[in-house]
């Protein structure tokens, strides 16, 4: 079944350790360990963004949180950062020495998302990271040497527990590559690479040349061609897509040969993954390109972009248009295409599930891009079919596109709990929503602290409603707020002035109202 967290807790190096949070996740498999002592999430994220983004679905982290030992907010931010990366959990060292105790806010955040925190024995100066590292990695290595009868089900289960947007053929290939410490390549029948996962990830091994040299020999049954002189172990299987078209799966391992029947098991896993998540996996289309971007299928994305002559590096804008009436989807896409062609030279518009994903680049108009988005939502003839639209500028690369898509889906339907009267949102508002949602589930102490920001008016329902509508639904616009409340504009101005005096914040000034704004979002979340 693989090495689970429950298994590693039985190792001698964990004697005296306590599971503080995430007991429901102790069945999760661990395939690697890493040490995190650069615990500032801002700095860590800069490091991660410099390399190809990974989903760390089977990794557990060791840390003492030394660099943020006195900052509870940064500790919560770091835990959330690890959760967002997909880490299994955190092994916390030197509690009572470096941090006096694990803050309640950290525990509540971790428990709310089933994130495991293991506290090593408190006040123990004799603890050493290397003891846990050695024993855990030894257990993982021994387990990886066997490909048992449950291997197929185990592998599929690991991907199926990931968030929906992370379930893909490439993620499965990454997990298999990590498990086998081998290069895995998927090609079409012309030996053109469809997916390619290297081991290690920064490997410069020329797998394309190896495959081209190996294929003529092995695909003729070892006859009619000279056996290539290569130093790697190479094996392959044919994988069938749903439409019957063939793909070739190559397994390339340096220095050592894999155990018998490994290729049979691997091909069975990949075949099921193709059936589940690889619909039209070899298709060359804009739809396949967008799917590759949001599923983090980097090799496939580059191949498709080249074949379609689309410069993905030019993409700097994303619109996400969520529709509630799928019968209008084609008409909405056609309207978007016609409208955006006036402003952007690059426009990729495709529908995934109930979301029309619009990728834009090479802006060629003199007006602000926000105005282009606002004008569309104000003039579209399909407003009743659109449940929400998100506008996200300054996308630096396809990683930013994928993260924004994932973030919006994490916020999900809660957007309508926070914003009762709106359909159009900016990326900044989505990020604020995600922060409010995270804060709202961190326990009574945290929510009470935020409610204290607006406490002076909580007993006055008229003031509460005015404040919520003004900041959240009307975006600070007096005219819109008056219309939504069915009162005169001057009445709104009077109420807002009175509310500002009571709260001690001038909620008409951007530099002052953010805490009030966040408190209003949390209020609506916990009162809905």
Automatic annotation (TrEMBL):
Which Pfam families does the UniProt entry name for this protein?
Answer: HTH_30, PucR
**Out of the domains of life, which is the source?**
Bacteria
Q: Which residues belong to any copy of the Purine catabolism PurC-like domain?
A: 8-140
Q: Please list the residue ranges annotated as the PucR C-terminal helix-turn-helix domain.
A: 464-521
What is this protein's record name?
Answer: Purine catabolism regulatory protein
Source species, please? Answer: Paenibacillus segetis
């Amino acid at each position: 079944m693989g090495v689970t967290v429950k298994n590693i807790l039985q190792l001698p190096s964990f004697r005296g350790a306590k599971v503080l949070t995430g007991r429901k996740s102790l069945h999760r498999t661990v395939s690697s360990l890493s040490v995190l002592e650069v615990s500032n999430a801002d700095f860590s994220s800069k490091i991660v963004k410099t390399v190809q983004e990974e989903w760390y679905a089977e990794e557990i982290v060791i840390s003492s949180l030394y660099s943020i030992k006195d900052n509870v907010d940064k500790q919560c931010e770091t835990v959330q950062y690890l959760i967002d990366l997909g880490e299994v959990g955190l092994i916390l060292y030197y509690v009572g020495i470096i941090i006096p105790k694990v803050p309640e806010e950290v525990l509540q955040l971790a428990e709310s998302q089933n994130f495991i925190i293991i506290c090593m024995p408190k006040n123990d100066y004799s603890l050493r990271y290397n003891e846990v590292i050695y024993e855990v990695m030894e257990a993982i290595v021994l387990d990886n040497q066997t490909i048992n009868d449950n291997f197929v089900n185990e592998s599929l289960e690991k991907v199926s527990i990931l968030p929906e947007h992370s379930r893909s053929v490439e993620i499965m290939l990454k997990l298999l590559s990590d498990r086998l410490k081998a290069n895995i390549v998927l090609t079409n029948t012309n030996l053109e690479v469809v997916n390619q996962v290297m081991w290690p990830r920064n490997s410069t091994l020329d797998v394309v040349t190896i495959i081209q040299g190996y294929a003529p020999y092995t695909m003729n049954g070892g006859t009619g061609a000279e056996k290539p002189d290569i130093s790697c172990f190479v094996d392959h299987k044919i994988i069938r897509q749903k439409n019957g078209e063939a793909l070739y799966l190559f397994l390339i391992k340096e220095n050592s040969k894999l155990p018998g029947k490994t290729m049979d098991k691997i091909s069975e896993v990949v075949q099921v993954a193709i059936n589940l998540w690889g619909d039209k996996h070899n298709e060359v289309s804009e739809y396949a390109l967008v799917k590759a971007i949001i599923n983090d299928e980097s090799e496939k994305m580059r191949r498709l972009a080249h074949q379609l002559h689309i410069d993905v590096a030019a993409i700097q804008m994303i619109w996400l248009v969520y529709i509630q009436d799928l019968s209008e989807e084609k008409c909405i896409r056609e309207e978007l295409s016609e409208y955006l062609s006036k402003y952007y030279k690059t426009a990729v518009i495709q529908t995934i599930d109930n979301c029309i994903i619009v990728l834009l680049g090479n802006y060629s108009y003199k007006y602000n891009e926000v105005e282009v988005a606002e004008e569309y939502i104000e003039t579209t003839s399909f407003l009743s079919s659109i449940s929400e639209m998100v506008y996200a500028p300054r996308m630096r690369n396809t990683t930013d596109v994928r993260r924004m898509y994932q973030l919006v889906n994490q916020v999900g339907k809660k957007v309508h709990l926070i914003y009762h009267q709106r359909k159009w949102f900016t990326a900044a508002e989505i990020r604020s929503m995600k922060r409010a949602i995270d804060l709202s589930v961190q326990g009574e102490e945290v929510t009470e602290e935020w409610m204290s920001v607006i406490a002076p008016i909580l007993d006055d329902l008229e003031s509460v409603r005015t404040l919520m509508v003004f900041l959240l639904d009307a975006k600070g616009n007096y005219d819109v707020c008056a219309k939504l409340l069915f009162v005169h504009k001057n009445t709104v101005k009077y109420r807002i002035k009175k509310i500002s005096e009571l709260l001690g914040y001038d909620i008409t000034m951007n530099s002052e109202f953010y805490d009030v704004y966040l408190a209003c979002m949390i209020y609506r979340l916990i009162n809905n």
